[in-house]
Structures are given as C-alpha cells and as structure tokens.
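Input record (one chain):
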Amino acid sequence: MAAPRAVLLLSGKRKSGKDFVAEELRSRLGPDVCTVLRLSGPLKEQYAKEHGLDFQRLLDASAYKETFRQDMIRWGEEKRHTDPGFFCRAAVEGALQPVWVVSDTRRLSDVEWFRDVYGDVVQTVRVVATEETRKRRNWVFVTGVDDAESECGLDQGVAFDWVITNDGDKVALGEQLEMLLQSLQRSL
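The corresponding structure, as predicted from the sequence alone:
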C-alpha cells in the first residue's frame, strides 16, 4: 500500500450528499488518482458475517439496511471501544491511489486515527445541506439514529478545512469542488 498524498475525510448528516460529493471528486480526479473509501463497508461486512445477513443489501439505501441500522450502530460502537482504528485500517487496506476520499467519517476517533497515521495530508471536509433539502432526499428524523454519535459525533470538536454546501445547486457545488481540487493539485 502506497502512502497517500491527500486524504479527504468527508462528514455530514444523513442525506447531505456525502457519497455524491465523494463520487464527484473521484470523477473529476479520475479513478487512477482518486479512490473512495467507506468506513461503513468493513463495518457492514463484519456485522453481516456475525449476524448471518446479506452484506450487499446492507450497502444500499434500502429499508433492509434501515431495519438493522440501530443495532449495527450499537455493535460498531462496541468494536470501536475495543479498537478505535479497526474500521479505519480495514477501509484503507489495498488503497493504491494518491488521493483517498473517505466518504463517511462520523466520529472524532476516526479523524484522530487518520491524522495520527497520515499526518498533514489529511483534510476534513464537512458536507452540509439544509433540513429542507435533506427532506427532499427522503430524510426523516429517526430517534436513536439522527441523535446518535454516528450522526452527531463531528458536530463539535473539529475545525473543518472545507465546508461544502450541497443543496442541489450544481453550479455552486461545482465551484466549491473546483476550489478544493485546485488546492489538492499542489499535493499531487
């Protein structure tokens, strides 16, 4: 595994468009330069194995995943208490591109792990969308999910390097991403 030249840690609320922004960055940089990593992938894979569930269905935005979300959050917290870097290490395994975009950074311990391991190449990116926009994307507040650490863990305690507003204005989003990409070009 080659050391990355840039690691972008994306965070934001459910339905803010973190995955969309991550895919836009990969598309603009190209797959040879940029890979999208998901901390939730290794979590869901291990959870599926231990609970006899369909891993692929846990990856999509389905009712199936929502059925298990709260228990998966609880289970993941237990794993993190034992080993805070467990899911981070699993996510970066095999990543070879010089730019890594982690599309689902949710906890301060995730940010700390990446900063401890990769230092100054790490940048934090907060993806924000209004509640109205999130509702248009089918977000509904769920007690035990939207008020849990998995959604609120980075609401405080992090001075974000970048804040990207993703309310559906493609031109505004493109301008923000272009500024971020211009900054990244200096690292490549």
